[in-house]
Amino acid sequence: METGYHLFTKEDFLEDAFFREWVKHATPAATAFWTGFRDSAPPNREAFEQAVVALEAILSLQRITPATGVKAIVWERIQQQLQQQQVVPITRNRRWYRLAAAVLLPLLIVTAWFLLRPEKMNKVVSAYGQQLRVTLPDSSVVILNAHSELSYYNWKDGKREVWLQGEALFNVSRRATPSFTVHAGKVQVEVLGTIFNVKERRDKVEVFLKEGKVKVSAAKGTASLILQPEEQADYDAGKGLLRKAVAKKEVALAWTESKMQLQQTAVKDIINTLQDTYGFTIIIEDTTVANRTIDGVLPLNNVNNVLFELSAILNMKIEKNNDTLTFKSAGQRGF
After folding, report:
1. What is the spatial distance between Cα 28 and Cα 42, in angstroms, rounded to a whole number?
2. Which of 42, 215, 319, 324 has its CB 3.0 to 4.6 Å from that of 6, i.e. a possible disulfide?
3. Cα distances (Å, whole numbers) of residue 20 to 56, 60, 62, 115
């Protein structure tokens, strides 16, 4: 059972983009996930089943798209109806008028609310230790790293925009429509059709370009950058600096293979990744260890294997207590 979903109500499931994707399209990844979730007998399985039935019923209906200007017309009619009700004289048929108002007014109000209600944002959230594959309305594909969130409104007029918290790899579909824009913290990434990685954590944003071309811009006062393949833009919100750096895809995209490619990587950076991926609270008794650097490959798909390898590499004892890891001086391993 994935963190969070076992607490969902029926309404929560209906508002979840990943859940709706499964019921509507039954993609292999979504089917595997939600079938596993249902088979795990979560405490809210009844709400889950109710949401499936409700969404299937909704999708079976034929949606009527209102013509241009219909919202204004409906609202004008409501106002006219209200005004007519206010000036209707009380006669022998007043009971009939009241009955008609009781029937028509709620119907008009509900219709107006449906047409004028604020648009909800679609959200896909990955849990700690989980990666999700998301197919966007334009067929662009996003691989969402652990503990990340992707949000977007229903796209209109060809405008494609998403908001990211965490990390994701984007494979953007090429369209003749306006550019695809990713908002990550204070950084905007504009593309036309390309593959790139965006990481937004700890007030820093990294944009790595694998294929194509992207434009990266940040807060006012900073110049925009055009990235070519194998280039990376780094933004530090604390300093307000946006700069370009040469990077390697083996390092920037290693997370998509559930690993870290370590090249003179500081222990503190590895610790940050463990916190971001698994949600650990980490305590280091000897703080000098944080600046030590490591080379090699560190698999991240199994937390116990990660701790075992780190313990051996650093010659330290790592004690695991629920979600807290304590790095201690050499001794018998504590996990």
Report:
1. 21
2. 42
3. 10, 13, 17, 21
pLDDT in tens, 39-58: 888 888 999 889 888 888 77
Gap between the Cα atoms of 213 and 226, Å rounded: 7
Q: DSSP H helical segments within 3-69, as ranges? A: 10-15, 17-25, 28-39, 45-60
Q: Which amino acid, residue 123?
A: K
- Using a 10 angstrom Cβ sphere, with 0-12 exposed, 13-18 middle and 19 or more buried, the burial of residue 147 is buried
Q: Which two tokens stand for residue 105?
A: 């007014």
Structure tokens belonging to residue 255: 């997370």
CB 291 within 8 A of CB 268: yes
Backbone angles phi, psi at 43, to 5 degrees: -65, -25
**What secondary structure does DSSP assign to 212-265, as a single string?**
S-EEEE-STTS--EEEPTTEEEEEETTTTEEEEEE--HHHHTGGGGTEEEEEEE
Print burial letters for 122-144: b (CB count within 10 Å at least 16), e (below 16). bebbbbbbbbbbbebeeebebbb
Partners of 307 in the beta sheet? none
